[in-house]
C-alpha cells in the first residue's frame, strides 16, 4: 500500500471529505495542516497552492479525484 499524505487546512470541507472517505475505507494517511509553515512550504514545493493536496506514493493529486484515489489505493467502489 502506498504512503498517503494529505495537506489540509482548517475549515476545508473538501479536506474533511477526503479524510472521511479514507477513514471509511480504513486507509491510513498522514495529515499535514498547512497552518504549520513547514507543511505549507512542503506543499508549495510540489507547486500546489490549494488544499486538499494529496500525495499517494509518488503521485501528486492537485484536486479531489475519487476514481484516481480508488485506482491508486485499490479501493472497490461503493
Report on this structure.
The protein has 78 residues and is an alpha+beta fold. The protein is built from three helices and four strands, in the order βαβαββα. The protein is 37% helix and 21% strand. Strands 2-1-3-4 form a four-stranded mixed beta sheet, sandwiched between helices. The longest helix has 12 residues, at 13-24. The chain is globular, with a radius of gyration of 12 Å.
Strand content: 15-25%
Strand order across the largest sheet: 2-1-3-4
Tell me the span between the first and last alpha carbons: 20 Å
Instruction: Please outline the major beta sheet.
Output: 4 strands, mixed
Protein name: Glutaredoxin
Domain Glutaredoxin: 4-58
Organism: Staphylococcus simulans UMC-CNS-990
Please outline what is shown here:
This protein is of the alpha+beta class.
Strand and helix map with partners:
Layout: E1 4-8, H1 13-24, E2 30-33, H2 37-45, E3 53-56, E4 59-61, H3 66-73
Parallel strand pairs: 1-2
Antiparallel strand pairs: 1-3, 3-4
Features:
alpha+beta, about 35% helix
